Write a sequence for this structure.
C-alpha cells in the first residue's frame, strides 16, 4: 500500500509543553483522514511538522517519502493547506487571491483561469470573484481558502479545522462542498477537527489525539467498535423513578444512565445485552414498551476515549 | 526563484495600493508624491532644479521614506493579518519570500523617486517651453539613481529586522521611522558637540569636496552594508523560526 504520510514516534515540545508525543501513523494515499482532538491537543502542531514549518524534537515524518525539513520545498510543492487562519489577503479580491497563489505554483495562465472558474463555480463564489475578500462573511472566506488550498490540484491537502467559527448552517454547507471536492479531486485529505459529526461524515480514517498522544487510529467504524459502546433507548412508564435509576447505575454492565424526555438512555459496557436492564426495570415496577439498541456514534466513542484517558 | 520574487513583489505592491480599501486611495497618495516632487518643487526651484543637486536631494527622502511603510506592512503586517503562515506553507523558498518582500519595497520607493525625477525634468522643460531642452547633468542623474537604489535596499533590509521583532505593523513602522529619523538627525546633533570653531573649516572643506568621489565612496559603503544586511536577513528569515514568533 502507498502511504502519503508516515510518522514514527514524532514528538515536538515547546519548552515544558509536550505538544506532540511519540505519534506514529501511516496515512494511505487517497484517504480522507480526520485527526480528532480537543483544542490544544496538538493537531495544528502535527500539521506544521508535516509541512516542514516546525522541526521535530524526536522521531521522524515522511510525506511522499520526503523529509519535510531537508526537502521541505519538494513536500510543499505537492501539498495544499488551509491552516488555522484562512490566510487570505483581505484587501484583494477573491480572484486576485487565487491568481497570486496560482502564479506562485507556476500554473499556466490559461489553466489557472479555467481552474479558478471551476473551483469558484463549484463553491458558488464565481459571481463574487471581483469583490474585496475583507467584506465577505466568514463562511465565504473559508470556502475561498479551501479553493486556494486545492487550486493547484495538490496530491495532499491539509485542512486545519475548516469549519471552525462557522454557524451550523454554514458548516454543513462547507462540509457538503468539501465532500463534493474530495470526490472530484481524488487527493489525500488530512483534516483536523474537534467536531466529531463532521469527521464521521467526511473521513474514512480517523485518529484521536489527546495531549499530544495518538490514543486511537483506524476507520470511524473500527473506532466506534474499539470503544465497544452500545446505547439503549428504553421507552415506557415509571422509568425515571429515582430508586430505579439508582439501581440501574449500580449494575456492573451499565456505564451511564440518563433520563431524556421521559425515556431512558443507557450506555452499556462492552458487549453487554440490555435484557438484564429490562429485567431490573420490570422487577422494580416500571413497564417497558419499547427497547431500541443503537451503536455509539463517533462522538460518543470519542468522549469515551477521553474519559478513559482521564481515568 | 526570480519568478517567485516577482510574483510576491507584485502582490505586495498591489496590497499597498489597495490598503485604503480601493485602488483610488492608493493611487491618489502616489500622485501626491509625484505631484510634489515632480511638479511643485521643480516649478518652485526653476532652473536650479537641474544645476543644484541639493534641491533634488532635499526632497529625495519623501519617496524613499515610503519604503518603510511597505516593508513593515509586508512582513509584520502579513504576520499580524495571519497571511504569512499560509505563504510559508506554499512551495516558495524562504529566500524568494524575503527577496520578494525587499524587492517590493525597493521597487515602490525607488520607482516613485525615479518617476518623480523624470516628471520633474518634463515639468521644467514644459515651464520653459521654447527654450533649449534641459536635463539633469548625466553624472548627477546616474549617482542619484544608484544611491537612491542602494539607500532603498538599506532601509528595506533594516525594515526586515525591525518587522521581525515587532508585534504589529504599526509598531514596526513607528520603530523604523524613528530609526531613519535618528539616522538623518544624527549628523546635525553631532555638530553640536564639535569643538568651537571647528564647524566653519569643516563646512569649507565640504564645499571643496569632489562630489563624484564622495558619491562613489558613499555608494561603495552603502553597497557593502546592503550585501551584509541582505545576507544577515537571509540567515534570519527561516520558516521554522518565523512560525514560532
Amino acid at each position: 500500500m502507498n502511504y502519503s504520510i508516515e510518522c514514527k514516534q514524532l514528538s515536538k515540545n515547546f519548552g515544558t509543553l509536550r505538544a506532540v508525543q511519540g505519534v506514529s501513523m501511516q496515512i494511505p494515499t487517497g484517504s480522507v483522514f480526520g485527526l480528532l482532538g480537543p483544542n490544544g491537543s496538538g493537531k495544528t502542531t502535527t500539521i506544521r511538522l508535516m509541512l516542514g514549518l516546525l522541526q521535530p524534537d524526536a522521531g521522524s515524518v515522511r510525506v511522499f517519502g520526503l523529509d519535510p525539513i531537508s526537502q521541505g520545498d519538494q513536500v510543499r510543492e505537492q501539498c495544499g493547506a488551509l491552516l488555522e487562519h484562512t490566510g487570505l489577503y483581505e484587501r484583494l479580491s477573491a480572484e486576485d487571491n487565487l491568481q497570486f497563489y496560482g502564479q506562485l505554483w507556476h500554473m499556466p495562465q490559461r489553466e489557472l483561469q479555467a481552474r479558478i472558474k471551476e473551483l469558484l463555480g463549484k463553491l458558488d463564489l464565481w459571481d463574487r470573484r471581483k469583490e474585496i475578500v475583507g467584506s465577505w462573511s466568514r463562511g465565504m472566506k473559508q470556502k475561498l481558502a479551501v479553493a486556494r488550498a486545492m487550486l493547484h490540484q495538490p496530491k495532499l491537502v491539509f485542512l486545519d479545522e475548516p469549519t471552525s467559527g462557522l454557524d451550523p448552517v454554514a458548516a454543513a454547507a462547507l462540509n457538503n462542498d468539501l465532500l463534493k471536492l474530495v470526490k472530484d479531486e481524488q487527493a489525500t485529505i488530512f483534516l483536523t477537527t474537534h467536531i466529531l459529526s463532521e469527521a464521521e461524515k467526511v473521513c474514512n480514517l480517523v485518529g484521536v489525539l489527546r495531549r499530544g498522544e495518538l490514543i486511537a487510529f483506524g476507520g470511524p467504524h473500527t473506532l466506534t467498535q474499539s470503544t465497544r459502546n452500545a446505547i439503549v433507548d428504553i421507552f415506557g412508564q415509571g422509568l425515571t423513578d429515582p430508586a430505579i435509576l439508582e439501581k440501574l447505575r449500580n449494575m456492573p454492565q451499565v456505564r451511564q444512565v440518563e433520563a431524556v424526555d421521559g425515556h431512558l438512555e443507557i450506555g452499556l459496557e462492552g458487549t453487554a445485552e440490555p435484557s438484564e436492564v429490562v429485567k431490573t426495570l420490570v422487577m422494580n415496577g416500571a413497564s417497558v414498551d419499547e427497547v431500541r439498541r443503537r451503536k455509539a456514534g463517533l462522538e460518543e466513542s470519542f468522549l469515551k476515549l477521553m474519559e478513559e484517558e482521564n481515568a | 526563484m526570480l519568478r517567485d520574487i516577482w510574483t510576491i513583489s507584485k502582490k505586495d505592491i498591489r496590497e499597498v495600493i489597495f490598503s485604503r480599501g480601493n485602488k483610488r486611495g492608493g493611487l491618489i497618495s502616489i500622485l501626491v508624491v509625484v505631484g510634489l516632487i515632480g511638479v511643485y518643487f521643480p516649478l518652485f526651484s526653476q532652473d536650479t532644479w537641474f544645476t543644484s543637486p541639493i534641491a533634488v536631494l532635499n526632497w529625495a527622502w519623501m519617496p524613499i521614506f515610503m519604503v518603510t511603510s511597505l516593508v513593515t506592512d509586508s512582513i509584520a503586517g502579513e504576520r499580524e493579518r495571519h497571511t504569512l503562515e499560509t505563504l510559508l506553507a506554499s512551495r516558495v523558498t524562504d529566500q524568494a519570500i524575503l527577496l520578494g518582500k525587499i524587492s517590493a519595497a525597493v521597487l515602490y520607493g525607488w520607482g516613485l523617486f525615479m518617476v518623480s525625477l523624470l516628471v520633474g525634468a518634463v515639468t521644467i522643460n514644459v515651464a520653459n517651453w521654447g527654450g533649449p531642452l534641459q536635463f539633469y547633468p548625466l553624472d548627477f542623474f546616474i549617482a542619484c539613481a544608484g544611491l537612491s537604489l542602494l539607500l532603498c535596499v538599506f532601509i528595506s533590509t533594516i525594515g526586515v529586522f525591525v518587522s521581525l521583532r515587532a508585534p504589529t505593523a504599526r509598531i514596526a513602522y513607528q520603530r523604523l521611522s524613528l530609526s531613519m529619523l535618528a539616522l538623518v538627525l544624527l549628523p546635525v546633533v553631532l555638530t553640536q558637540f564639535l569643538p568651537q570653531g571647528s564647524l566653519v573649516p569643516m563646512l569649507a572643506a565640504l564645499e571643496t569636496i569632489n562630489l563624484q568621489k564622495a558619491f562613489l565612496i558613499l555608494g561603495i559603503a552603502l553597497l557593502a552594508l546592503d550585501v551584509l544586511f541582505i545576507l544577515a536577513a537571509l540567515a534570519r528569515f527561516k520558516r521554522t523560526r518565523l512560525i514560532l514568533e
Observations:
- Residues 3-221 of chain A form a domain with the Rossmann fold fold (CATH 3.40.50.300).
- The interface with chain B takes residues 14, 48, 51-55, 69, 72-73, 76-77, 79, 81-92, 96, 100-101, 103-106, 132, 148, 158 of chain A (CB under 8 Å).
